[in-house]
Amino acid sequence: MGLPIALDAMGGDFAPGEIVAGARRAVDELGLEVILVGVPDLMGDPQGLEVVGCTEIIAMDDDPASSVRKKKDSSLVRAAELVRDGRACAMVSAGNTGATMASALLRMGRLPGVVRPCIATPIPNPGTTPTLLVDAGANSECSAEMLVQFAQMGATFVRSYYGVDDPKVGLLSIGEEPTKGTPLVKETHHLLAELDGLNFAGNVEGRDLVPSPVDVVVTDGFTGNVALKTLEGCLRFVFGTVLSAIATNDDTRAAGRVLLEYLAPVVHDLTPENQGGALLLGLDGICVISHGSSNATAIMNALRVADEMDRAGVVEKLRKTIRPD
Amino acid sequence: MSADVAQPSSLDKAKISSLVREQLAEILEKSPGEIAEDVPFTDLGADSLALIELVEALEESLSTYSAGFHIDDEDLESLTSVREAVDYVAAKLKVA
Questions:
Q1: What is the pTM of this model?
Q2: Taking an 8 Å Cβ-Cβ cutoff, which residues of chain B contact chain A?
Q3: What is the ipTM of this complex?
């Protein structure tokens, strides 16, 4: 039997109740092994799950880097240490994203050769495998070397996790031509085009996120986060508008019942709680970041993704991608 | 003192500088030769997280010279270059 997954029971808007409930569902419905990491007196009923106790909690508004240093006995830091020490195969948290990254980075370490880890967010691509957006918010300022590494890690992840043979990689820009974009984008375009072993499809634009002609979209963390939040806002608006229209009168409600049956698979794919969260790529360990407002379903799916990453051997494959020798 | 603990007297500022530059080079994936002593950390490409990495790596390395060596959190802001970090460590370890 493999190692359990360490779950930060204190992170997230609905912690610990929804977090523990999500863990219980992951155990009961998916057969996963989960260790809860949290403050015993605040956690409530652990529902029969193993608990690794701690005494501190990193709050959502704590400074990421300094909080890891100041709160060494926090649930986030302890969860990362369980992975580092070989007692857990992965960590999952719905808490402070920056502190989750900092904890994972400072305790698990970077894979040799990785300049900076990145956040990879799968964007649903209805009818096919998701498109991976890298970097979705870890590094606001990037060098071309970092973007090239994000592209390489993103492609390796898509290959090993989604089973796509030769993932297409696109570079996010303001036009398809190689001459378009900032100096950083143009330099990165040149490097990606020259890189062996990467199926670089050239520049893509914002409208190419959903649906997408590529499997990986590469950008800096600032742009990626703006793109992601824009997409989320638009989808929420469109769904809300459609549902509101359906609720107008008896005729629209009857039409809605027919329509929703066909829309259900698309809605399922586009519902964040079914996605499993974002992944940190480039660490010497697995870390899945679940949305701060995660409910039990979202936590269960984040744990599922962590388990699948472990089974797919993603970290070892990333290690060989960055340092093939 | 344990035989495994190196003596602070075997350290000097040059060795401390070398250690700081090597650690930072590893974190930033650069060569030590690219880490200049007087260039601000931010200009070398080190963000706040990289600096925490550096501090924790230095604490671990320097604990072999002085058990429990610790860089105080309130002093972190004042360490903005390799030279300032070296001077700080040297003062703490009472190294010339």
A1: 0.89
A2: 28-29, 45, 47-49, 51-53, 55-56, 73, 76
A3: 0.76
